[in-house]
Amino acid sequence: MAPLEQLLSRSHDFSEMLLAELQQCSEFAGSDREDAAFAAAELVFEHAVAVRVLFEVGTASSAVVLLRAQFEAMLRAAWLLYAANDAQVAKMAAPLTLEAAADAKNIHGADEMLKALERATALNPGLRGLVLPLKELKDSGWAAMNAFAHSGLHALARTREGFPDKLATDVVKLSNGVLQMAARLLAHLGNSPGALQRIGPATSPTPTCCRRSSRQQTRPEALGCRCRIRACPPTSECRSPSLARTCGCISTRWSRTMASTWCWTTTCRSSTSWRA
User: Between 202 and 70, whose confidence is greater?
Assistant: First the structure.
């Protein structure tokens, strides 16, 4: 089996593991804010499925378009839960009608949502582990993802020249990372500390797969990292053989400029781990 095919298979298992953990939650949502955030996080899971399917059928550039949608859904979920005001929540939680759609037309976009989340982080430092990865992807990859979404140079060049296998695996891994963030948000909504702990922090260390950028020279183990989602230890098999195919090696964090290098790297469990 080719590396990308193996990764897609492991990614499917990873998604199923997250869903199984979320099924242990006693209940989800309740208020309009929680209902709206739940819907956005659920959309993250739907887009993740689409990313994998599009790679399976060989439409890689379209998969990147769905990665953009997946990221924006995650950003929307976080914004709705932690930063949107009541009037904005009401617009996003309203039943779909022509009037409601027109009223929600000018709701915050990605830039405004991220700025609002950064302001919320100033009041609640525990959100840093959620907001900082979203900001890093927004800063480094938004232009490139938009170019794919709007048939810009990135999309046309990949159509002409082909889509590199390494780039494909990096996109799938990033999709898995965003998916894990959504799972954490849903576990938080479901009031399930156990599921939240088993799902792991918003970014998980993967020592055997770590690819650090020049900006990240510190070794994960030096920061006291612990594998929280069955990530592969440095010198042995995954701790849980039954979950070996759902190890953290399939989930990475981005770094540097997605537009030019698309360099992804795993991150450490540190003081910025999402605690909300």
Answer: 70
Instruction: Choose among 202, 32, 19: nearest CA to 126.
Output: 202
Per DSSP, helices labelled H in the chain are: 3-22, 32-56, 60-82, 86-93, 98-103, 110-123, 128-149, 153-161, 165-189, 193-199
Which pair of structure tokens corresponds to residue 107? 């709701």
Largest CA distance in the chain: 59
Name the band, by pLDDT with cuts 50, 70 and 90, for residue 141: confident
pLDDT at 88: 95
Place of tokens 């022509």: 98
- State the Cα–Cα distance between residues 235 and 24, nearest whole angstrom: 32
What are the backbone angles phi and psi of residue 199, rounded to the nearest 5°?
A: -65, -35
CB atoms within 10 A of CB 106: 8
Quote the mean pLDDT of the chain. 75
| Cα–Cα separations (whole angstroms), residue 194 to 21, 25, 39, 87 | 9, 9, 22, 33
pLDDT for res 137: 86
